[in-house]
Sequence to fold (279 residues):
Amino acid sequence: MKLSTHVFQRTSDQGMPIISVDNPVASLELSLFGGHVLSFMPKRDNRQRLWLSPKAVMDGSKPIRGGIPLCWPWFGQASQADLPAHGLVRNQMWQVIRVDDDVDETRLQLQPKQCSGPGFVHSAELTLELLIGHQLSVSLITRNTGQQAFTFGGALHSYFRVSDIGKVKITGLQGPYQDKVQNTLMDTSPSPYCIAAETDRIHLTQSADISIVDAECATQLHNQGHDSLVVWNPWQEKSAHMADMPANGYQQMLCIEAAITQGLELAPGQSHTLKQVIA
Ligand code: TA6
Fold:
């Protein structure tokens, strides 16, 4: 089904609606389950920026491993044990509410079917806005549509494709971080910043510009509206124990997430944009 000149909707083999964008400068695929970007490739270099697990479960029975999972209205474990990690929206269907084609950019807006549920009983509106052009801009916009303030969190939990994790350097991250593997607070980020073991770090920083420098290329990230940048790689042992990840999958991926981990209060009528631009 054609939604506009450059935007199509199809049904995957597993029965999930997939949105494909193919414009003169870039291509992108998104699953309506989770409002989940699966791939992004600018045509100037035809290099896939995102990593999608070959073992990802794509039938809507669990969140998709890889691409850009949307975590909202909380990041990580929920306050109650029976609630899902990373919030309520990566497990539900989203719908397209707007499509615009421009000469070298396509704009898509989507919303989840529900913005409240167990663990978050507030009046909120959540919109995902994607600008698909020479770069991909991903904005998660939270609006308080109720009469009372609420506190929320979340993340753009992006999985980036790398050629070899052993050769990657991250630039632009300095200062202290919470190390979730060692369960300690570290004073300074490594320099050079390489990944050589299981890594799960919350950098409490509003630094905006980060580069993932790979063997022969670099992926540039511009982040906005976050209180933290999260760096995650499960490494060998954890990958081997994850049913939706190949044992060696950790070698080709690195998560760098624009996140709100500290809780952000939003007054009635206010909106907040959490954004990551990928170039
Ligand atoms: O963002 C890092 C993290 O919170 C890790 O602790 C790790 O478990 C990861 O996300 C993946 O979570 P998931 O629920 O998708 O398996």
